[in-house]
Design goal:
It is a single chain. By secondary structure, this protein is an all-alpha fold. The protein has one domain: ABC transporter involved in vitamin B12 uptake, BtuC. Helices cover 73% and strands 3% of the residues. It has twelve helices and two strands. The chain has helices at residues 2-32, 39-56, 61-84, 94-118, 142-164, 166-176, 178-183, 188-211, 222-235, 240-260, 266-280, 290-293, and strands at 132-135, 138-141. A hairpin with a 2-residue loop joins strand 1 and strand 2 (138-141). Helix 1 packs across helix 6 and helix 6 (166-176) packs across helix 8 (188-211). The radius of gyration is 19 Å and the shape is globular. The model has no long low-confidence stretch (mean pLDDT 85).
């Protein structure tokens, strides 16, 4: 019983954070066909911005997260206008190669800037809520539950935006078929810019959530970025529902592996699981071949 509670509790929290982190990545791929390998840098920016305003300026956790989210949206817009917009129109496969190389360069620049500004010493965010409850032999931290619920709330708001708002509907139309959306009068450039801004905001928000669990370091974005990529690929590239379902499956899987085999086996089992799934379903859980999708 205690083992089951531990797996469900940890899996829920991890899955919620993974989903928040990966949704932005899925949005950018679904709309621009851009796999952002600087995603880990965005996560770290969120953590460090929140630490700066919370630890140095004494701002509450909630406001620190809002500020980090706004900073992520601004970084996303800067990324679009300085890096992605000049590359639009080059066509595939040049677009794929160019954006991959550019995003790798951006990741290196972000890490270098953070190292220069904040230094190499580890930093930690203050918890949003103190306290704990003991269930059997399991210690459940209130902060962890709060972070999990907050991540779910972010996902609900994102779902509402994509399904019900005018801008969200335009974004989904461009993701489905950019030429048809253009003929319907939807400005694709504006949609591209807003997509990258939203993805940046989601990434930095996820970085704050991660920062409440793990110590911050300039190179700390690699592991969560790799997990986010696995989630997006497993769920189906560009599929938001698939990304969310995959995030919770992977969260539960990592929690179970950590309990039964140890934390060091979490990543190897995760990638082995992804390989097996893609052998059976090459397009992921909710993915479709390109000719079917468009």
């Amino acid at each position: 019983m205690n083992t089951a509670v531990s797996i469900v509790y940890t899996g829920f929290v991890l899955g919620s954070i993974f989903a928040t982190s990966a949704v932005g990545l899925a949005l950018m791929y679904g709309t621009l066909r851009f796999l952002n390998l600087a995603h880990g840098g965005f996560l770290i920016v969120g953590g460090y911005v929140a630490w700066l305003v919370a630890d140095r300026l004494g701002v509450p956790f909630y406001l620190a997260m809002v500020i980090a989210t706004v900073a992520g949206a601004g970084l996303g817009l800067l990324t679009y206008f300085s890096m992605l917009r000049p590359l639009l129109g080059v066509g595939s496969p040049r677009w794929d190669i160019a954006t991959i190389m550019a995003s790798v360069g951006l990741a290196i620049i972000i890490e270098a800037v953070i190292l220069l500004v904040f230094g190499p010493r580890l930093k930690s965010l203050p918890p949003a809520i103190d306290g704990k409850i003991i269930v059997g032999t399991i210690v459940v931290q209130y902060n962890a539950l709060f972070i999990g619920v907050l991540a779910v709330l972010i996902l609900v708001v994102t779902h509402w935006f994509l399904k019900s708002s005018r801008s969200g509907i335009a974004l989904r139309a461009v993701a489905e078929n950019v030429q048809a959306a253009y003929l319907m009068g939807i400005p694709s450039g504006r949609v591209f810019a807003s997509t990258v801004a939203i993805a940046g905001a989601l990434a930095t928000a996820a970085g704050v959530l991660l920062g409440s669990f793990y110590l911050l370091r300039p190179s700390g974005g690699l592991d969560p970025m790799m997990t986010a990529i696995v989630v997006v690929v497993f769920g189906g590239l560009g599929s938001i529902p698939g990304t969310i379902v995959a995030a919770y499956i992977i969260g539960m899987l990592q929690a179970a592996v950590s309990v039964f085999l140890g934390v060091k086996w979490a990543s190897p089992v995760l990638f082995a699981f992804m390989i097996l799934v893609l052998i059976v379903r090459p397009y992921g859980l909710y993915g479709r071949p390109e000719d079917v999708r468009v």
